[in-house]
Specification:
Keywords: Hydrolase, Protease, Ubl conjugation pathway. With about 240 residues, the protein is an alpha+beta fold. Helices cover about 50% and strands about 10% of the residues. The protein is built from 7 helices and 7 strands; from the N terminus they run E-E-H-E-H-H-H-H-H-E-E-E-E-H. The chain has a 5-stranded mixed sheet with strand order 3-7-6-4-5, sandwiched between helices.
Length: about 240
Amino acid sequence: MAGYTRNGFISPGANSDDEYDVGFKDDALEADFAILLKRTRGFEIKVVRGDGSCMFRAVADQIYADEGMHDEVRRLCMDYMERNRDHFAPFVTENFSRYIARKRQPGQYGNHVELQAISEMFGRPIEIYEYSENPRNIFYPTINSLEMHAPIRLSYHGSSHYNSVIDPFTPMVGIGLGLPSCISSGMDNLHQAIKESEKLSVEQAILQSQLALTDIERTEKEINEQASQMERLFFRSVDLDI
């Protein structure tokens, strides 16, 4: 289904205001915004490539410290939405299957629906900053708030472009991936964290096997003790009869 842009033209397949084909550029406003975030929150805006995949690039930078993994974020997002069709279909204004197929293509803009899906996928709120030190929008995962991880932070520029907002003193790479280590100083650390996660999974599997074996042994011991007790009671009963 087509959507209308702010200038009245129809944008094929647009599903929300952040898929519009118009934007604006104001260098002074952008400079003031960057200074404001740095001064009030200590955040820095990390610019990602503007090629239609900027939203997925910005998220990839937040999750993997590598905007080049935007295709993986897009794939995971669309897979998640496809698996949860009943949850997301009411918020899509075109045929859902066509929408998913279209959004799988590189360069297709992401919007609020995809941001909600990404928030749920990684169990992290997503904060959108737009020329303010406070987020304009926050997307929450559909889980207990006590279980939520640190937020993914994006900035929105000129009504058409997303960037990654980072806290240089609080690394968050890997959060939401189930990794035991999320310290960020580059992809080497992330790869090491993934290896540690795999090692931890093996160790947990071994521990669970040991615990299961312990439970079996404990059960067998209890059965044997009960059998011995029954045997003693039986012979005692026989002795009394004699």
